[in-house]
Amino acid sequence: MIGAFPTIPAALDAAAAGVGELRFHDTHGTVEQVLSYRALREMALAVACRLSAAGLGHGDRLAVAAETRPEFLALFYGCQYAGIIPCPLPVRSNLGNPAVYGEKIAAMLRAGNIRTMVELPRQSGLDMATENAGAALIPFDSLIQLPAGPLPIPSDPDDIAYIQFSSGSTAHPKGIVITHRAVSANVTAILTHGLRLTATDRAFSWLPFYHDMGLVGFSIAPIYGQCSVDYLTALAFARRPVLWLRLMATYGSTITYAPSFGYRLAAQRYRSEPETIDLSRLRVAGIGGDMIRADILGFFTEALRETGFRKEAFLPSYGMAEATLAVSFGETGKGIEIDHVDREAAEEAGDIRIVAESNPQTGRSFVSCGYPLPGIDVRIEDDMESPLPDMRIGRIRVRGANLTRGYAD
Question: Does the reported pTM lie above 0.85?
Answer without folding.
Answer: yes
